[in-house]
Design goal:
Layout (H helix, E strand, L loop, with lengths): L1 H10 L6 H9 L10 E2 L3 H5 L11 E2 L8 E2 H17 L16 H13 L6 E3 L3 H12 L8 E5 L4 H13 L7 E4 L10 H11 L3 E7 L11 H10 L3 E5 L11 H4 L3 E4 L14 E4 L46 H14 L4 H23 L4 E2 L10 E4 L2 H13 L2 E2 L1 E3 L3 E4 L8 H16 L4
Bound molecules: pyridoxal-5'-phosphate (PLP).
């Protein structure tokens, strides 16, 4: 916030002035990255054909589906050409130097620094929920004493179902599903409450499996402290970092997390249904005794094609992969990771903090008490979750969408806005708040 205030006073402009946002955009060292993405026009995004709809939309939905990196289309087309001209030989001899047989390693090298992992700790396969099941198959080993799984009470439905069904699959009682709940009247979880739940129930918890960033509230959990406390209580610790990867700083290795997984189509822009990645800590890299569900791609790469039917796990996360890499979805992720390689999480987070603080400031000063921001002021990434009174909620959301401010609604009355530092601008933020302001203060009452 200090940086925004200092820039405002130097320029002699109010933060509420669009020209202030434009000054911030001109000074933005990451502004060049916006051109790496295809940004829909208002007409394209809203499916209309309005005379004034040919300008670019304000896309604040990168927490749900990131925009398309132009590189992704290029690389995808190259893989199609490769398939057309090389057939099966593309696995080994690739005209762009990306033989399909080793494709995973190219992704892993670029993905590891984004999540604070060593390359040996990162794998690429499937989609997220499938990976949750595969990882729980290896890491949820319930005993009569230690059989519970701790998740947050309003976890993303897919995570809730996955954990609940794992518990049933293992024939464990329903009290094995342990839910961390916010205090009455509060929206977000307090770290102290999570830690005390772990202290109380620790001896009966097999796995602590929270999300790194809560999808609904945008709260970033204190992953370092929670991991340390859960490890001290003897639990296995897994994180679903889907809303955290590419959004906030992560140090999965240094925190000592056992496993983690994330999809890549949100802040990581790999496209609809994009491939998921996962993390298994280096401490298991050579642990061939760790039971897991296997397939040929997890077999040690050197001898995979010997066809002996004697399973020898690959080292690290590679040993948890099951099928051969789906190249076409891996290609679009590779395109996005190329863009990430042009910056760093440190730089991205620096801009992200400013963008989100600017959004918060404008909401507070221009919308005031007609919006409730439930995302914490401190522990958050590139998302603010806004609650509106139910009688105006649909009106506000409708106005945003028809003005070409693309965001999402979560029933009953929450709108999530995610200014993404890779492609969003300070002007985007200004326009979004201006539309909310118009919806509330000019077009009605
Ligand atoms: C987006 C998201 C999912 C989606 O799961 P898929 O298996 O990719 O369909 C699951 N969990 C969380 C926490 C998410 O944010």
């Amino acid at each position: 916030m200090e940086h925004l205030l200092a820039t405002a006073s130097k320029s002699g402009l109010d933060l509420e002035d669009l020209r202030f946002a434009q000054i911030m955009d001109r000074a933005d060292p990451l502004a060049r990255l916006r051109n790496e993405f295809a940004i829909p026009t208002v007409n394209q995004a809203t499916g209309r054909d309005a005379a004034d709809g040919n300008g670019l939309c304000v896309y604040l939905c990168g927490n749900s589906l990131g925009l398309m990196p132009k590189q992704s289309r290029r690389i995808l087309n190259e893989e199609m050409d490769e398939w057309a001209t090389k057939g099966v030989m593309g696995h080994f001899h690739h005209s762009k130097g990306r033989p399909w047989v080793g494709y995973r390693s190219q992704i892993v090298e670029k993905m590891a620094p984004i999540v604070g992992a060593e390359p040996v700790e990162v794998g690429v396969m499937n989609t997220l929920t499938t990976n949750l099941h595969l990882l729980l198959a290896a890491f949820y080993r319930p005993t009569d004493q230690r059989y519970k799984i701790l998740i947050e009470s309003k976890a993303f439905p897919s995570d809730h179902y996955a954990v609940e069904s794992q518990i049933k699959w293992h024939g464990r009682p329903a009290d094995a599903l342990l839910l961390a709940e916010p205090r009455p009247g509060e929206h977000t979880l307090r770290t102290e409450d999570i830690l005390s739940l772990i202290r109380q129930e620790g001896a009966s918890i097999a796995v602590v499996m929270l999300s790194g960033v809560q999808y609904y509230t945008g709260q970033v959990f204190e992953m370092d402290r929670i991991t340390a406390a859960a490890k001290a209580a003897g639990c296995v610790v897994g994180w679903d970092v889907t809303h955290a990867a590419g959004n906030v700083p992560l140090s999965l290795h240094d925190w000592g997390v056992d496993f983690a997984c994330w999809c890549s189509y949100k802040y990581l822009n790999s496209g609809p249904g994009g491939i998921s990645c996962f993390f298994v800590h280096e401490r298991y890299a050579h642990d061939a005794d760790l039971q897991r569900l296997t397939g040929w791609w997890g077999h040690d790469a050197e001898s995979r094609f010997d066809m002996t039917n004697q399973f020898v796990p690959g080292v690290g996360a590679a040993g948890f992969e099951v099928s051969n890499t789906p190249i076409l979805v891996a290609a679009t992720l590779l395109g996005s990771l190329d863009v990430f390689s042009k910056t760093s999480m440190e730089e991205l987070c620096k801009k992200s903090v400013l963008l989100t603080a600017y959004l918060e400031y404008l909401l507070q000063t221009r919308i005031g008490n007609r919006v409730e921001i439930i995302t914490p002021g401190e522990h958050r990434g590139a998302q603010l979750s806004l609650l509106f009174a139910s009688e105006i909620f649909e009106h506000v959301f409708g106005m945003l969408m028809s003005a070409g401010v693309i965001c999402d609604e979560r029933k009953p009355n929450c709108i999530r806005l995610a200014p993404v530092p890779l492609y969003n601008t300070f002007s985007d933020v200004w326009w979004a708040v201006d539309v909310i302001h118009a919806a509330l203060y000019t077009s009605r009452d």
